[in-house]
Amino acid sequence: MEKKTVVVGMSGGVDSSVAAYLLKEQGYRVIGVTMQIWQEEDACTLEHEGGCCGLSAVEDARRVAQMLDIPYYVMNFRKEFQKNVIDYFVREYQNGRTPNPCIACNRYVKWESLLQRSLEIGADYIATGHYARICQLENGRYAIRNSVTARKDQTYALYNLTQEQLSRTLMPVGAYEKDEVRNIAKKAGLLVADKADSMEICFVPDGDYASYIERETGQKSQEGNFVDTRGNILGKHKGIIHYTVGQRKGLNLALGYPVFVIKIKPETNEVVVGRLEESMTNTVYMNQVNFMSEPEFASGKIYRGKIRYNHKGAPCTVKKLEDDLYQCTFLEDQRAVTPGQALVLYDDELVAGGGVII
Description:
Structural class: alpha/beta
Distance between the termini: 49 Å
Number of helices: 8
Number of strands: 17
Largest sheet: 6 strands, antiparallel, barrel
Shape: globular
């Protein structure tokens, strides 16, 4: 049987390096690719910022590819990353929403663009170092399944992949715990075995989103009013891009009791704050829905819904209101449901589908 060819997206980290190693061991013809997505031309900035797209990532990935004796390329995806990730990130914050750039990057850059280019060069699959598993179900559909390690599970950020993309994707590290992955790297002699995970958003390594958005747009964020749920003015805010729903720290409001951001109103440049109980709800609406294990959500069925990456998930039901508009009702109130984030629904270990919270 002819060996299948797989392009592995290599970030220079231990997970994608081990993915490449495992696939080579399994008999695939492996090609390593690092996606060049950074916008800066300044080498010092790139080296300092690192993350999954700095120059050090390229050097580490190149060295791993040499050790594994596989071809290695750097592919330029700057334009796609600017349009689908950075521009979207900036626009969402300006509209008072909290984006998830990793989900956008996965769907439109890592998969759509990388997969397309990989197929053009004759590959059968692409592969990544994500902690998730892909399976084909009895109904013929492809789905993402939780990784064996709950601590590192990355299925939430992958809910938006299409059936075609899933059918062409391999995720070999989803079957391992993180410690096992590091041990595999050590035994294989991979120099990145002890490299720390990158946690921050790669293009905002210092975590200061507001300053990044001001630099990107060339516009200073306008001050406005903090108001309570009845519209009473409580103080001044620094500009809506500094805040996200659920935020408690950094509000600098001395009210004698803790308050949370409940809503952001770009049309009036107001940030609505309230007590903890005012930040709770059991009803969530979503659109831009992608179905995965099922072609449509089942009425009355209990799913486990996750409203953010580090949310444990909670039981809920889903109802279709109209085309691409769904109402999700949780059995118990949830805190800080945030417009712009994803609501991902699980059926046991499988991702049933998900959408964007509105």
